[in-house]
Specification:
This protein is an alpha/beta fold. Helices cover about 45% and strands about 10% of the residues.
């Protein structure tokens, strides 16, 4: 199993669409270059922010191929491979081509609402189906069930290729429990931009970020400062973005960050149903915050 360094900022890439609803592969390529050139430590592909449930299998393969080719080994790539049918995920992990992929991110099964033992058995099957490093993803607001600290630690201790968790439970006490009791080889990654700074002060290694799509340089600087213990300067940058963190999710993710990327000239302001672009009233508030930050949009 290859090692992967998940310290710093991993950007959960959006999927650009054209007005005719097709994937804008040219815009995606430009966005990948923007990330690599501006300090992003690794990319997370086909996650929630990429609107993955609305993509066809053919589109997913083309997106992964494009990103792997464009990155060309310059930074690691983490691929979202999750779902609520354990057997399907296991077959995918055993049969698909993962050339150019450095790790997988696998979400707690959603909709089914499995027990903690069910979650453990699910991840046991996932871990045993691949030699790639596995990053767990706990996001109860989307899955309908919380993976407890006890379950996370059990998985972390028993499977050496389970190397980290993206924690988006919003429960700082739970995250701190994991950080305090985890194996040395296991990392905790913030799943929310807004708590990345405080979580790093507790021992997290970074964040898988939405806002990093638009501001990789600024956000990466904040995270690096925090990781080196320069909390004062990191906190200053964190506080500059706090209002924006909230505004980006008012109309659902990735509507907020797509509106900014559109204003920056990267993409069309297009999402696939059932998601819609951010409301004009929300974007005007976003624009005002950006103006105060001296970021032109």
């Amino acid at each position: 199993m290859a090692d992967i360094n998940l310290k710093g900022v991993g950007v959960a890439l959006i999927t650009p669409f054209r007005e005719d609803d097709s994937v804008d592969y040219e815009a995606l390529g430009r966005l990948v270059d923007f990330q690599v050139q501006n300090g992003t430590d690794y990319l997370v592909v086909l996650g929630t922010t990429g609107e993955t449930p609305t993509l066809t299998e053919e589109e997913k393969k083309k997106i992964v191929s494009l990103i792997v080719t464009r990155v060309n080994g310059r930074i690691p790539i983490v691929l979202g491979v999750g779902g609520n049918c354990t057997r399907s995920i296991v077959e995918k992990l055993k049969n698909d081509n993962f050339t150019g992929i450095d790790a997988i991110l696998s979400v707690v099964p959603y909709y089914n609402k499995p027990s903690q033992e069910g979650i453990y058995q699910h991840y046991k099957a996932v871990a045993q189906a691949t030699k790639l490093p596995v990053v767990l993803y706990n996001v109860p607001g989307r899955t309908g069930v919380n993976m407890t600290a006890e379950t996370t630690l059990r998985i972390a201790r028993e499977f050496s290729n389970v190397v980290a968790i993206k924690e988006a439970s919003g429960n700082i006490t739970q995250m701190d429990d994991i950080i305090k009791n985890k194996p040395a080889s296991f990392s905790v990654i913030s799943g929310d931009d807004g708590i990345a700074f405080p979580l790093i002060t507790l021992g997290a290694v970074g964040v898988i970020s939405v806002i990093g799509n638009a501001f990789p340089r600024e956000f990466s600087r904040m995270v690096r400062l925090a990781l080196t213990g320069d909390y004062e300067n990191a906190c200053t940058i964190h506080h500059r973005f706090t209002e924006l963190f909230e505004l980006l999710f008012v109309d659902g993710n990735p509507a907020g960050v797509k509106s900014i990327l559109h204003a920056m000239g990267f993409i069309e302001n297009k999402l696939r149903l059932p998601l819609l672009p951010t409301r004009i009233t929300t974007f005007e508030k976003i624009r005002e915050v950006l103006r105060q930050l001296s970021i032109k949009c």
